[in-house]
Hints:
By secondary structure, the protein is of the alpha/beta class. The mean pLDDT is 94. The strands form 2 sheets. It has an 8-stranded mixed β-sheet with strand order 1-7-6-5-4-2-3-10, sandwiched between helices. It folds into 2 domains: 12-249, 3-Layer(aba) Sandwich (Aspartate Aminotransferase, domain 2), CATH 3.40.640; 258-378, Aspartate Aminotransferase, domain 1. Helix 1 (12-24) packs antiparallel against helix 9 (239-249), helix 2 packs parallel to helix 9 and helix 3 (57-67) crosses helix 7. It has helices at residues 12-24, 33-46, 57-67, 84-91, 114-117, 137-147, 202-209, 215-219, 239-249, 258-276, 305-314, 330-335, 344-351, 363-378, and strands at 50-54, 75-79, 96-100, 122-125, 150-154, 175-179, 192-196, 279-280, 295-299, 336-338, 352-355.
Amino acid sequence: MIRLYKEPRLNKRFFKFLDIAFNHHRSIQGDGFFTKLCNRWLEDNLYVRRAFVTHSGTGALEMASIVCDVGQGDEVIVPSFTFCSTANAFALRGATIVFVDVKLENGLIDEKLIPDAITDKTKVIVPVHYCGNACRMDQIVEIAKEREIYVVEDSAQAFCSGYENGIFLGTIGDIGIVSFHEHKIISCGDGGAIFINNENLIERAERVYNYGTDRFAVLQGKKRDYAWESLGSMYMMDELTASYLYSLLYEYDPESDERDRLWRIYESHLTSLDNLGYIRLPLVEYEYQFNPTHFYFFVNDTRYRDRLIEYLRKHGIESSAHFRTLHDSDMGKRLGRCGSEIKNAKIVADSIVRLPLYEGLSEYVIEYICETVERFFCKGDGF
């Protein structure tokens, strides 16, 4: 079976790092030697002002909601087509989630709909860079700055994916988050990171990361002992996970274009099906260092989507649909409202198909996958 996601792997460096953690530093709790190395790698290689690795991407989002001081009565704008963690993180703080429609051509939040969704209660806008595909951050940041609203980039699927002029996604808004979950580009099982790009939020983020205390000030010798100063929680990544993550980051090239190259191979083989009207290939908004988590397209006739996925499985290819829309879920109705008419998100959710894409996937395998998709539509094998 050709897996949808790359299998996790161990490397010799990880065992060396484990030895260092156990036998030299003698500590495997959070905020240790390897945690700090991971933070520094993210800051140095992605040009982040302050990075904190967390126990999950979800934890990073929840931390962001506290850093932005989201509370009861606030409103947070999110696309309807996203994972529930994007909404949960802010709903847990008592915010009303305001759902906005996405673009039919790629599933990204439609920035043109954001201004009409804003009220005097709006605290945060959360663009989601689906599959590493960049939302139009210039326009979104401009909208937010005019109204003094925070921007939290959900870059869970966009690690080392670029925007333009050498800028990485997750480093443009006030805060960005990434995920190191098993299905992401770099994986340590579970894990994530939060990027603090707004200088004014760094000290607050340090307190939130340290359970709501001023522990960082104590470690820096500025105070003798620390006290509870704000809301916070346990968001730190433990040393075992961090040592594995750092063993992957240590050898990772943030400028790699391998995933972009594999995406283009898919595109070249499937363009004919797009031209014939069977599928729609997604528009990539910005092509600077596109680093996708997977390949995706949309089936024009949604009746055939599930049949295609089953057909691929029978031919040894793992594929899948993805998110359901949030605005019409039970929790979405209870905890949110629609900030725009939502039509495209439902179409995107009903028509999306995801295919394998990861380093080490050969061009031969991609050709086989594309030929199998073509047989389904053009020869009617799956009908």
